[in-house]
Design goal:
- About 60% of the residues lie in helices and about 0% in strands.
- It has about 150 residues and is an all-alpha fold.
- The termini are far apart.
């Protein structure tokens, strides 16, 4: 019995250590660690639970507040889009969630692209977000030159 408990604790510890939030917290705790690509995450920037995609968690604190809000909204949309309407009540809940979080997402995204077109860091992030979530296919969003 103690061996099984120890194995379970070990597995849970590994899982917790490998979570995207753990990586952000580790970078904040060890400021003298070897530098990594990109700017360090903000220490006082908690990533909301709504943002669960690992790539979105990684960039969240580097983004302006409007892009952060979009990431939270889009992650919630993706969550509900994957749910099954197993009965009428759940179907209605999913329809409400779709209306609240998914409708108009392409327009919101297009507005973000226009608003941040001159910020290369945000522009690169928006290109990646567009690729992850297939938001606007016909959007002519090219990487910054340089």
């Amino acid at each position: 019995m103690p061996t099984k408990r120890l194995a379970l604790i070990g597995c849970l510890s590994l899982l917790a250590a490998c979570s995207p939030q753990a990586a952000v917290n580790a970078a904040a705790v060890a400021p003298n660690a070897a530098p990594t690509a990109g700017p360090p995450p903000a220490v006082d920037c908690p990533v909301p639970a709504d943002v669960y995609d690992a790539d979105d968690v990684r960039i969240y604190c580097q983004m302006p507040s409007d892009v952060q809000a979009f990431l939270a909204r889009e992650n919630t949309c993706q969550h509900f889009a994957g749910e099954e309407p197993y009965d009428d009540e759940r179907r209605r809940e999913l329809e409400v969630a779709n209306t609240e979080y998914c409708e108009g997402r392409e327009k919101i995204f297009t507005d973000l692209v226009a608003r941040h077109r001159d910020d290369c860091v945000v522009r690169q992030a928006l290109i990646a977000i567009n690729g992850r979530y297939d938001l606007v296919f016909e959007l002519d969003l090219k990487p910054c030159e340089g």
